[in-house]
Batch of 3 targets.
Target 1
Amino acid sequence: MSLVFTCQTPWVKKEDVKREWFVVDAKDKILGRLASKLAYMLQGKHRSDYTPHVDQADFIVIINAEKIRLTGKKLDQKIYWRHSGYMGGLKLETARKLLEKKPEQLIYLAVKRMLPRNRMRKKLLKKLKIYAGPNHPHIAQNPKPLEI
């Protein structure tokens, strides 16, 4: 006597994925909360046919990145670092300096660090478009406004 279990979960193929475009206004949004929602959507977990091994990410356009907020003393105490690979090549920046110079990088790093560290992270991040101001070049795709 053998039991046969059938899988009733719909497995989606990459050819069957229908991608949408969304635009998110980051004005007065808190960085961490926004980044966690964006990471959730980039993985496709908001979809009813979510399949873990398939890239189901919708394209997300973020505008007004320069008007993002950080709570508490994070502007001065949060430190971003990078290393050139050479001795003495450690570069440190506070969140305030990064927000003034490259506000897109602040959101990009927050979302990148909330995604799983696997092969799909690079593919998912290509679907995230971040702009410092209110204008973006993706008007032809008719992005839907997304309230987070």
Target 2
Amino acid sequence: MTTKLAVLSDIHGNILALEAVRKALAAEAPDAILLAGDYVLNGPRPAATVDAVRELEAQGALVIQGNTDIAVADFDFAAAFPWFTDGVPESFRIAAEWAHDELGEERLEWLRRLPAERRLRVDDALVLLCHASPGSQTAGLGADLDAAAILDRISRTDARVICCGHTHVPEVRDFGWRWIVNDGSAGYVFDGNPTASYAIVTVDGDEVRAEIKRAEFDVMAVANEISARGLPGDVYRAATVRTGKLVR
């Protein structure tokens, strides 16, 4: 029996991008929707984004927590951004505090309760939903990693398909014995294509197929909303949304 999974992540408070992906998924009609974390930091509408994700969860979607969700919920910046060995930039702290206040306690408690990983068995294939890589919310599976590091990280699970995000760069890699499906970002993509990216994974018996999809949204409206907020770093965040490339 053929099973179709939709994977999305890294929405980052961009409700217009999420709405565009949801509209596209209505046409795709997946059997399950998997959301791989990072819902609120950086974008202009964190509360609306959380509400939309919770609506998907109530409809049966699998939802996990990303590293920036930890930063916003509990201000544990060392856990969320371990690569900042000399301290987290002030612009990150202020953006996290702003999103924290926007969410309110009930939404923050929901963020805190989210698991780091979920697993789904489709026929004989085990599918792992994680934010960055198996066992980690911060150690990603980017294309810049050497082969040994990639193999080490994907060997930390028995899953046939690893669905993840975190890098904001969508890609699909087939190792034969294991697949990496990185959906990119449904709201804050870094690959130079200023759209919302997501992935469709199809499992049909022993066969696995995966494809990156894109949904257009009003990029300028989101960028302008970020700029109007006026937090430190917002000019760069707005430029990132506008260009689809990380600007800092």
Target 3
Amino acid sequence: MKPTLFVLAAGMGSRYGGLKQLDGLGPNGETIMDYSIYDAIRGGFGKVVFVIRHSFEQDFREKIIKKYEHVIPVELVFQELEYLPAGFQLNPERVKPWGTNHALLMGKDVIKEPFAVINADDFYGRESFKILAEYLSGLDGQKNHYCMIGYQVGNTLSEKGSVARGICEKDQDNNLTSVVERTYIIRDTDGCIKYKDNDEQLVPIAENTPVSMNMWGFTPEYFDYSEAIFTDFLKENSNNIKAEFFIPLAVNQLVITGKAVVKVLETPSKWFGVTYTDDRQSVVDKINRLVEQGEYPAKLF
């Protein structure tokens, strides 16, 4: 059975402004998602599931899903703030989304096979999808063996401001030993890459430090683990209107407790994306170069 690609597209891109998932950046108005879907299909994925919010469903169906329906099966699920486990109620003051692993939970009822998770607004590169599909195709029927695509942090930064990344540590067998979401990583004026720790201090890290770009591979029991961890998370954070339930938080807990093994799959691909408005032209230029080099056709779908 071919693996499924689960695309997290519920975010509105507050730093960039507007619904950046629908922004046409390719020569024929292609979105970054279009390139991800194209790469996923030729890499070996068999279905695509999008998680979005109800507020932009119509636009999404008309501008995005129509392009793919004739080439690959597509399903749609929804993330809303009030979608919480039984016994929990939404704090009326909360406006911030619950985070990436909450969005992932929305796919439980429609994904029953090994699956990959990606962000809608990140350009991951052809080779990364191929590596991920090949690994996931070997997991059918297995449990508790996951993976992530590891990028070198120096290849994932924005020239326009700070970024958020999951900083990873791994053992000699390339199994993940920890991943910590750092919400402020930047190349400082001295050329060194640094992140802010929990005490707001800048900590230097090496250029080739592996980081998560939210490109993961799981098998379906991960949903059950996530529900249990989310329940514990809410018990501790229900009154914290800014707390977020990130995928690295759940993965880290499973790794530390020995419930799962996560293989770090290194990729030669370079990541790029539109984190800030000023990033847009750079992304347009990079896509045009890839088209000129023959990596992608001028019109994808």
